[in-house]
Design goal:
Blueprint (H helix, E strand, L loop, with lengths): L1 E2 L34 H13 L6 H7 L2 E3 L6 E2 L5 E3 L19 H10 L3 E6 L2 E5 L6 E5 L4 E4 L5 H14 L5 E5 L11 H5 L10 E4 L2 H24 L31 E3 L3 E6 L2 E7 L9 E5 L4 E3 L22 H15 L6 E3 L6 E2 L1 H27 L4 H7 L4 H4 L11 H13 L14 H11 L3 H14 L9
The chain binds zinc ion.
Length: 482
C-alpha cells in the first residue's frame, strides 16, 4: 500500500478543451422549429410499442438518496455570461409522456437525466448530478473530502461544491481523483482545488498516461473537434420538444471556464492499492478503453465501486462523432471483464459511474457490468464475422441487430452511441476507411459528384420534387425505418 505524495504545485494551462469548447446556452424562445412530419410521428409511436415504459426501476434509482435540488439560478462566469442554466431543462417533466416529436426512448432518458440535485449514494459518499454533462462524487475522508472527477468547468464545479456544503459539514478538499483523460471529468479542477487547505498542494491522483493523453488530443485537433462536437451535441439547437432534449449521456454541456492542474500521482501498476486521506482505494488500470488513460476502483471503506465511463446508462461510442481515435472494443470488453473478476466477489453496496445515477446492490452491479461487456463484445464479434463474409460497413450496419436479451436492457440502448455507427467504428478500427470496393477508392468530392447526380437525374426541379415526396414518406434516414 502506498501513500499519496504531494509533488507538484498548481499551474494552470491555457488550453482549448475540445469537448466543450464552442458550446453555448441558447435562447429557446427565439427559435421556431417546424412540427414533426407524420413519418417522424409514426416512427416514434412505433418505438413506443417496442419498449416497456411501465418499467420504472431507473426512475426509482435516479431519485434514490435525494437530499436537495440544484440551485436553479443561472451560473455565470466572471464576465457575467451564463455558462449553465438548469432551468433550460425545466420543460422536461417526469410525469409528462413524450410528445411524438421526440423519440420516446430518448425522452425517457431526458426525464432521467433531468432528475438532478445532491444525493447520498451510501453513507459517506455523495453526488451532485445534473449540474454539468458529468457527475461529481464526493467521498468523505478522515480529515476532508476526496472528490472523484471535477465536472468540466470551474463554475459548475464550484456550484456543485457549494450545494454539498449547504447540507454537509464544510470540510476542506483533501484529494482529487480523476478517473480518465476526458475534459468533462477534469476541466473543473481549479473549482474543486480552491476548497483545499492549500490549493497548490492538493493531491491529484490520475491513471497512468493521463497527462499526455489529456493534453495531446486537445492541442492537436482542438479546432476541428470543437466544431464537430457542436453538431454531435446539438449545442446550437433550442432546448424544447422540437429541438434539443438531452445529450443522452448527461443533460448537456457547460459553457464555463476550463482548468487544468498537473497531477501529483499517477497510478502506474495494473492493480494498486492506495490510502487516500485514511480511505482505502483499490485501483484497476483500464487503458485504451473508453479513454486512452482510464481506471476503475473499489473504495473499501464505503463498499463502493467506481467504473469511470466504461459503463453507464447508455450504449457508448466506440467512435465518438466529434472525432477521436477509434476505441479498441476488445480492450473495453477486457476492462469490464477484469472488473467483474477483480471486484465481483467484494461486498458491493453501490456502483458509481461518470455520467449517470448509480446502481445499488452487488447482483445488480454485476448484471450491468456483464450485460454491457456482452453488448460491446457482440457488436465487435458480429461486425468481424460479417466483414469476413465480405459485407461493407454500411451493409453490416443495416443488417446487424442485437439479441433481445441485450437490446431490451435500457442501459444498452443508443442514447449516445448507436449500434449502427459503432458497427462502422469496429470495421474501421481493423480495416480502415476503405470498404474494399474499387469504385469507392477515389470518389469525386461531394460537391462535384452531387452536381453530376443532379444532371444525370434530369435537373434540380425533378430531383427536388422526388426528394419532397420521399421526405413526406419519411424515406430519408435509416432510423425512420425502425
Ligand atoms: Zn465523460
Amino acid at each position: 500500500m502506498s501513500k499519496v505524495s504531494l509533488i507538484k504545485g498548481m499551474v494552470s494551462v491555457p488550453i482549448v478543451f475540445v469537448l466543450l469548447a464552442g458550446s453555448s446556452v441558447t435562447n429557446a424562445a427565439s427559435e421556431k422549429p417546424m412540427p414533426a412530419t407524420s413519418a417522424t410521428i409514426s416512427a416514434n409511436k412505433a418505438f413506443y410499442e417496442q419498449l416497456d415504459f411501465t418499467d420504472k426501476e431507473d426512475f426509482k434509482n435516479a431519485h434514490k438518496g435525494f437530499i436537495a435540488p440544484l440551485n436553479m439560478n443561472p451560473i455565470k462566469n466572471s464576465k457575467g455570461v451564463v455558462v449553465w442554466d438548469s432551468d433550460r431543462y425545466s420543460f422536461i417533466k417526469e410525469d409528462q409522456p413524450a410528445s411524438f416529436t421526440v423519440n420516446p426512448s430518448l425522452w425517457r432518458q431526458a426525464q432521467l437525466q433531468n432528475i438532478s440535485g445532491l444525493f447520498k449514494v451510501v453513507d459517506g459518499v455523495y453526488q451532485v448530478r445534473g449540474q454539468d454533462l458529468s457527475v461529481l462524487t464526493i467521498v468523505e475522508g478522515k480529515t476532508g473530502l476526496i472528490v472523484l472527477d471535477t465536472l468540466s468547468t470551474i463554475e459548475t464545479a464550484k456550484a456543485a461544491m457549494e450545494l454539498y456544503f449547504e447540507h454537509r459539514p464544510k470540510n476542506p478538499v483533501s484529494a482529487i481523483v480523476i478517473s480518465h483523460s476526458h475534459a468533462d471529468h477534469f476541466g473543473g479542477m481549479k473549482g474543486i482545488a480552491q476548497y483545499a487547505e492549500n490549493p497548490a498542494k492538493v493531491p491529484i491522483i490520475v491513471p497512468a498516461g493521463f497527462n499526455d493523453e489529456a493534453l495531446s488530443e486537445n492541442i492537436l485537433l482542438g479546432n476541428i473537434m470543437s466544431r464537430r462536437a457542436g453538431y454531435m451535441f446539438g449545442n446550437l439547437l433550442p432546448a424544447n420538444e422540437r429541438g434539443f432534449v438531452t445529450s443522452g449521456i448527461g443533460p448537456g454541456l457547460s459553457n464555463g471556464t476550463f482548468s487544468y492542474l498537473p497531477p501529483t500521482m499517477e497510478v502506474k501498476d495494473d492493480i494498486q492499492t492506495v490510502e487516500i486521506d485514511g480511505i482505502t482505494f483499490k485501483f484497476l488500470l483500464t487503458p485504451d478503453s473508453e479513454a486512452p488513460s482510464e481506471m476503475h476502483y473499489y473504495i473499501n471503506d464505503y463498499k463502493t465501486l467506481v467504473v469511470a465511463e466504461n459503463t453507464g446508462h447508455t450504449l457508448h461510442n466506440i467512435y465518438t462523432l466529434r472525432g477521436a481515435k477509434t476505441r479498441d472494443t476488445l480492450k473495453w470488453v477486457k476492462a469490464l471483464d477484469e472488473t467483474v473478476d477483480l471486484f465481483g466477489n467484494e461486498d458491493i453496496d453501490a456502483m458509481v459511474t461518470a455520467h449517470t445515477w448509480p446502481v445499488w446492490g452487488r447482483d445488480n452491479v454485476l448484471e450491468q457490468l456483464e450485460s454491457q461487456r456482452d453488448l460491446y463484445k457482440y457488436i465487435h464479434d458480429q461486425t468481424i464475422r460479417l466483414a469476413n463474409l465480405g459485407l461493407t460497413p454500411d451493409e453490416i450496419a443495416e443488417k446487424l441487430k442485437l439479441p433481445e436479451k441485450l437490446d431490451k436492457v435500457w442501459a444498452n440502448r443508443g442514447y449516445y452511441g448507436t449500434l449502427k455507427h459503432n458497427v462502422k467504428a469496429v470495421y474501421n478500427f481493423y480495416l480502415g476507411y476503405f470498404n474494399g470496393n474499387p469504385s469507392d477508392l477515389d470518389p469525386l468530392p461531394q460537391e462535384e459528384s452531387g452536381a453530376k447526380y443532379i444532371e444525370y437525374m434530369g435537373g434540380e426541379k425533378k430531383v427536388i420534387k422526388r426528394a419532397k415526396l420521399d421526405y413526406k414518406k419519411g424515406n430519408i434516414a435509416g432510423w425512420l425505418k425502425y
